[in-house]
UniProtKB/TrEMBL annotation:
Superkingdom, taxonomy of origin: Bacteria
GO molecular function annotation: nucleic acid binding
Gene Ontology biological-process entries: DNA integration
Protein name, as recorded: Transposase family protein
All copies of domain Integrase catalytic, residue ranges: 147-346
């Protein structure tokens, strides 16, 4: 059988072209190479030249209308695709379910879609599901791209105490054996983990507290401890932050909390809930306070399987021992520890000192106007408070805060008190006489003067 072929394989043509390219343009060796190839395949030299010319001739890889729709002009098809994409986006629920492309085309053909420009209907049989899906993907109108999150923006405070992130999370321990207090009407309190994290350094301060839900009183008590100087020498974290970033929950909405933050000159910013900022994952913004929660629950609270704390004080002592090691660990981006980063990046004005507990309690007072009863008592939530006799029947301003066990009263521009809760009504066959005040003495004097007057 003859080994000669009527056509030259493409790889042989490429090898021949490479050999010819390495030779000078007028080299006689070029003709020898062409002749040898023609003799090898049993064809003429002209056929070899023709084959070389066809190899180098450019050819179109696609049709002339490649990338353009054929059933409609691009603008019209794009308008239909936008309507279908809008239908699918409008019908998307929280589980990600939405109208299919075929169903959306059917609605366009049978009923149409009301838009600002009016009713728009598609002719039947014009749009096909495969065609629409292909152009939705090419024009980036498909669901994955329309619901794609915007690029994440990483923010970080410039100095220490510029921003604190504050949050609360139920402990995995749930309860302790001997809580400090129990409300019989509400059952056993929940062991809650309170945390603040410095945005710049990542230093965390946390406390356990037995609470019944998220309340402003527990949050304010914790924030005072976080801002006040610590008794531990290995934990210098303190001071009033410039900004407090927290959830938009009952604490941030509480008027007493807002008044205290305004008095301390601490701005607060609430976290945007999920779904309120488009497809962006809003929880990423508070990740610096959520990360220590997970670390404590995985590295510290898992050891409670061996030994559980019995009291809130004991649980906090163990927690603070762990936090000392946690803050001594490396910073997320720097080559030193979190605590060293906090100390090294304190602003030029220094740490803003925290006020005393007494002043803090005054900040937590919310003035309230009340009318004193004829028995010189004020009843608040079933508890009676006895004030000065001169205030009987008068309207006074109560100065009573979240942390006060006593009550102060503002009357005639002066602050009176402290007053404490009194017992119930006077028992039968017992009598009580009020101490006569200045108002009573003045009234007696006016009465005596009235009896002496004569016209």
């Amino acid at each position: 059988m003859s080994s000669r072929r009527s056509a030259i394989p493409s790889d042989s043509l490429l090898q021949l072209r490479q050999r010819l390219d390495r030779l000078p343009p007028k080299s006689p060796e070029r003709a020898n190479q062409i002749a040898a190839t023609a003799q090898l395949y049993g064809i003429s030299v002209t056929t070899v030249y023709r084959a070389l010319h066809l190899v180098l001739k450019p050819r179109t890889a696609h049709r002339s209308d490649h990338g353009q729709p054929r059933i409609l002009p691009p603008s019209e098809l794009e308008h239909y695709c936008e309507l279908i994409a809008a239908l699918k986006l409008r019908t998307t629920n929280k589980s990600g379910r939405h109208l299919s492309t075929g169903r959306a085309i059917q609605l366009l053909e049978e009923h149409g879609v009301e838009t600002v420009q009016g009713l728009i209907k598609s002719p039947k049989g014009l749009l096909r599901k495969q065609t629409v899906n292909r152009w939705l993907s090419r024009w980036r109108l498909d669901q994955p791209r329309l619901l794609r999150e915007p690029p994440a923006v990483r923010f970080q405070a410039e100095n220490s105490n510029d921003c604190w992130q504050f949050d609360m999370s139920p402990s995995d321990l749930k309860h302790i054996e001997r809580p400090d207090w129990v409300d019989p009407a509400r059952g056993e309190p929940t062991l809650m983990l309170f945390s603040v994290v410095d945005d710049r350094s990542g230093v965390a301060y946390q406390e356990y507290r037995c609470v019944y839900g998220e309340d402003a009183e527990s949050a304010l008590r914790f924030l005072f401890n976080a801002m006040a100087p610590k008794t531990r020498s290995d934990f210098p974290f303190q001071g009033r932050p410039k900004l407090l970033y927290l959830d938009n929950g009952p604490v941030a909405k509480n008027h007493v909390f807002q008044n205290v933050m305004q008095s301390l000159k601490v701005d607060w910013l609430t976290h945007t809930p999920a779904g309120k900022d488009g497809p962006r994952t809003t929880a990423r913004s508070k990740g610096k306070v959520e990360r220590p929660f997970r670390t404590v629950k995985e590295a510290h609270e898992t050891l409670y399987h061996f030994h559980k704390p019995e009291t809130e004080l004991q649980a906090n002592e163990w927690l603070w021992n762990y936090l000392s090691r946690y803050n001594a660990q490396r910073h997320r981006s720097e080559k030193h520890s979190r605590l060293e980063d906090w100390l090294a990046n304190i602003g030029q004005e220094g740490v803003r000192d925290m006020c005393s507990w007494e002043q803090y309690c005054r900040f937590a007072r919310e003035p309230e106007s009340r009318k004193v009863g004829v028995d010189a008592r004020i009843t608040i939530d079933g508890t009676a408070w006895e004030v000065e006799p001169d205030m009987a029947g008068e309207t006074v301003i109560l100065l009573w805060g979240l942390f006060d066990e006593e009550m102060y009263v503002e009357f005639t521009g002066e602050t009176w008190g402290p007053y404490y809760p009194v017992s119930g009504p006077v028992p039968l066959h017992r009598y009580r006489t009020f101490r006569r005040g200045k108002a009573a003495e003045r009234a007696d004097r006016i009465h005596a003067l009235a009896r002496q007057l004569n016209i």
